[in-house]
Design a protein that fits this description.
2 copies of one chain form a homodimer. Chain A has about 220 residues and is of the alpha/beta class. Chain A is about 45% helix and about 20% strand. The first copy, chain A, has 10 helices and 10 strands. In chain A, helix 8 links the parallel strand 8 and strand 9. In chain A, helix 1 crosses helix 4 and helix 2 packs across helix 3. At the A-B interface, helix 1, helix 5 and helix 10 of A face helix 1, helix 5 and helix 10 of B. Chain A binds a DNA duplex (24 and 24 nucleotides) through helix 3 and strand 2.
Chain lengths: ~220, ~220
DNA sequence: TAGATTGTTAATCGATTAACAATC
DNA sequence: TAGATTGTTAATCGATTAACAATC
């Protein structure tokens, strides 16, 4: 479908952002957009937008610009939205529940089919229409369903062990919320891991505002 | 303190990761580490580690390596951990509560001093030792306290408006969980914004595993 | 046709990696 | 001193930006 030369990760990371802004155009009834217009809205260069889109063959028309509806459809397809990913959540604690209840994912091509926990008080409860299952049944569940992505919302100490199990069972993607990197899993099983290192991110924000803090105690 | 030449954002983003790994070394009682050893653990090049550390003056000793304790202290200082950032949370929904209850932040130099919501059912309840206050009192609270960072866990539609208020009141940092970019706020007020675009991140993962999905429906 | 805007090649910029001299 | 490993300069690599020819 797309060129055989590898798309760089920098480009891939911009895809969801493009999708968001194009959605907005669509919602506002805008039918065409030029790279220049889009660049102003998104705060990046028109050149970059054209380069990015051309990694995937280019969706525009010279002299006209980009048809918003077509662009929307093309990027949705690239991101796999038309055929939703089958997702499970491991760990129904605070973060796991927040993720499960966050309904934006559905509109972006993800369908939750299972939630698992170890806590007997949580097992059996219902979150967003899904009954929390015992993590002991995880292996069976994965074997019987085509799971694309497992979301890890479990304590740091347990993460590697559970990730190992899931990777062994052939789940191709892990979305990891605990502050560990799962290099060993990536290497051993070729599993694709995206980390949400919340604390890391907050620390970056801290660093960036350091010079603007009021020096109260000095 | 540090050089007057600007530290690149790529380097800054690696700082929390360095901090995590150095903490681990410390926990394991390891007292010295070479860039080569650390590079193996962290999956990056020794050269990059030395370059990175030298942005801040260099913490090592030729022929020896890096003293773990010293390294730990230096990076902690860079990240502002010894003098915690004063943080408030706006929005005590699923995500806001998950953040408030996540105790890792405290150990990383952040102290929560307030949580705000609009919902009368939530206002007055206690989360992790802090009573949720009415968002109407937000302006007063910020004026009377030195808030460094506001965490926005509110619906997308409300985000810009609330961000505007907070920025006007002089809060230097915004940690934004809704899927909007706050370019206008950054430009108008010079506020530093870090976005946690969870859906975007999950979509990247989706893209990266696209070729490994079982083609069930084809 | 003239004007607009893409697709694409070339130039620039910045980040990463390699190399090595300094020095513990 | 010899060996090790940093700090730092130089080379490479990749990503972004600029320029322009193609074409609608």
């Amino acid at each position: 479908m797309d060129d055989n030369k590898k798309i760089s990760i920098a480009v891939i990371k911009r895809l969801p952002r493009y999708y968001r802004y194009i959605n907005e155009l669509l919602d506002n009834g805008i039918t065409k957009v030029s790279s220049k217009e889009l660049s102003k809205r998104m705060h990046l260069t028109a050149s970059q937008i054209r380069q990015d889109f051309n990694c995937f063959g280019g969706f525009g028309q010279q002299g006209y610009g980009y048809n918003v509806e077509l662009l929307h459809k093309e990027i949705a397809t690239l991101l796999g939205i038309p055929d939703p990913f089958n997702v499970i959540i491991i760990g129904a604690g605070n973060m796991g529940q927040a993720i499960a209840k966050y309904d934006n994912f559905t509109r972006r091509g993800f369908a939750f089919s299972g939630i698992f926990d170890v806590d007997p008080d949580i097992i059996g409860t219902e979150i967003n229409g899904i009954t929390v299952a015992d993590v002991k049944t995880l292996e069976e569940f994965i074997s019987e369903n085509n799971i694309d992505i497992a979301i890890l919302c479990i304590p740091k100490e347990k993460t590697k062990e559970v990730a190992e199990l899931i990777a062994t069972l052939g789940v191709p993607g892990l979305w990891n919320f605990s502050s560990t990197d799962l290099h060993s899993i990536e290497e051993k099983y070729g599993t694709v891991v995206e980390n949400v290192h919340l604390t890391d991110n907050l620390m970056v924000l801290g660093y960036r505002i350091a010079d603007q803090r009021k020096e109260v105690y000095n």
